[in-house]
Amino acid sequence: MTGTDNTSKNPARVAAGLKSTLARDNVSDEAKVNAQERLMEMGYTEDVAAYQHDEELHQTRVQAGYKAALSNPKVSEEAKENARQHLEESELN
Fold it and tell me: Where is this region: Disordered (predicted)?
């Protein structure tokens, strides 16, 4: 994204994308450094640890939602099976 003209983009959405880059495990260190630099240029000064914490909290809430779906009688069997698959996949990682 180097050299990209972001003048027509919503700065809050650009920042959200950059923060997401910092929080993801499958992103290279170089991409994370670039994202951190761009955030600082935009006036954001928070560190990477805060973004990683937010991502961990999000994942915890996602898992809780899947677990809740399993015990909710209003959730279809198809949705419960999907929740089971997601929970099994998360245990493998």
Answer: 69-93
What is the rounded CA–CA span in Å between residue 18 and residue 36?
7
Q: What is the pTM of this model?
A: 0.47
Read off the pLDDT of residues 44-73 as tens digits, 9 standing for 90 and up.
876 655 666 677 787 888 899 999 999 999
CA 71-75-80 angle, to 5 degrees, is: 70
Residues 69 and 85 occupy one common structural domain: yes
Are 33 and 71 part of one and the same domain?
no
DSSP state of 93: -
Number of domains into which the chain is organized: 2
